């Protein structure tokens, strides 16, 4: 999307918007949207990493309000259609460490220091944890929605791993969407996932599934000293709550923030929860 399209999506927020591709690693360029509020802001800049194949439309309710209050850099990871990738795409190009190295390169290019709040969901949350554990990513704090210790791809995705990528559209239509409609109890969450699957770059989707299907989040998360909130929703049947509580317990300064639903975590109301947790974590 260009700047005009983003502004319209977010109901023309009171901020400056910049959209561009920034060089990451291995010849990859990632789409980055930067939002700077027109009114003075005292909050830390936010580095926002959406989930696996996630599109901005799903985050519009949150972003439309948040970008008027905080400087936000929204980074789309390399499995998304917006990324520019030179040469042949390999499975290993979509491993977790590649994503973390991308974020390090992007934040360096943006001249962001450690005084940032990391915000991520699902894959984005896991990448942030992995990058912080590896010492690649620095930040004052992180607010993470449903990070994963493993990526438990559903049975319907196994044919995707084996099938040629051009078989994906019928597989998604025949298997994927009915599975999500059955599994997800929140109608708006289903709408978001339907949108992401139908807009995904199918070959990159295949490579990403192969790269991460055996991923395990490292257990030595206590090396991360920054405060980290793990946001969970009891009604979210797609992400495992046990994972979130286990991650929070493993962190040196981890805590659980419970919200009513996964959709709530995509709405403007969650800003109040983020601000309250961040103020408490900073000892204010």
Describe the structure.
The relative contact order is 0.14. It is built from ten helices and nine strands. The chain is globular. Strands 1, 2, 3, 4, 5, 6, 7, 8 and 9 form a nine-stranded mixed beta sheet that branches. Helices cover 37% and strands 18% of the residues. The mean pLDDT is 86. It is α/β, with parallel strands linked by helices. The longest helix has 16 residues, at 168-183. The chain has helices at residues 3-9, 60-66, 96-109, 123-133, 158-162, 168-183, 187-199, 202-212, 241-250, 270-281; strands spanning 15-23, 28-37, 46-49, 72-75, 84-85, 117-121, 141-145, 228-233, 254-259. Helix 3 (96-109) packs across helix 4 and helix 6 packs antiparallel against helix 7 (187-199).
Outline the biggest β-sheet. Answer: 9 strands, mixed
The oligomeric state is: single chain
Mean pLDDT: 86
* Envelope shape: globular
Question: H/E series, N to C?
Answer: HEEEHEEHEHEHHHHEHEH
Beta percentage is: 15-25%
Q: What is the percent of helical residues?
A: 25-40%
Provide the gyration radius in Å: 18 Å
pLDDT < 50 runs, ≥5 residues: none
């Amino acid at each position: 999307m260009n700047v005009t399209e983003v502004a319209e999506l977010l109901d023309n927020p009171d901020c400056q918007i910049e959209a561009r591709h920034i060089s990451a690693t291995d010849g990859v360029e990632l789409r980055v949207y930067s939002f700077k509020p027109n009114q003075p802001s005292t909050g830390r800049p936010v580095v926002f990493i959406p989930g696996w194949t996630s599109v901005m439309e799903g985050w519009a309710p949150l972003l439309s309000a948040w970008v008027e209050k905080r400087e936000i850099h929204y980074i789309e990871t390399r499995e998304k259609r917006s990324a520019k990738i030179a040469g042949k795409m390999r499975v290993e190009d979509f491993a977790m460490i590649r994503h973390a190295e991308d974020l390090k390169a992007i934040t360096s290019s943006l001249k962001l220091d450690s005084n940032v709040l990391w915000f991520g969901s699902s894959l984005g949350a896991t990448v942030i944890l992995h990058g912080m554990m590896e010492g690649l990513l620095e930040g004052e704090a992180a607010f993470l929605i449903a990070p994963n210790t493993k990526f438990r791809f559903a049975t319907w995705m196994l044919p995707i791993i084996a099938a040629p990528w051009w078989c994906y559209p019928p597989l998604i239509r025949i298997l994927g969407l009915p599975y999500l409609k059955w599994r997800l109890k929140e109608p708006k969450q289903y709408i978001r996932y339907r949108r992401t699957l139908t807009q995904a770059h199918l070959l990159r989707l295949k490579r990403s599934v192969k790269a991460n299907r055996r991923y395990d989040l490292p257990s030595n998360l206590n090396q991360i000293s920054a405060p980290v909130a793990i946001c969970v929703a009891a009604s979210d049947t797609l992400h495992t709550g046990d994972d979130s509580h286990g991650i929070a317990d493993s962190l040196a300064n981890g805590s659980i923030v419970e919200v009513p639903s996964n959709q709530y975590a995509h709405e403007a109301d969650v800003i109040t929860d983020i601000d309250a947790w961040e103020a408490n974590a900073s000892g204010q």
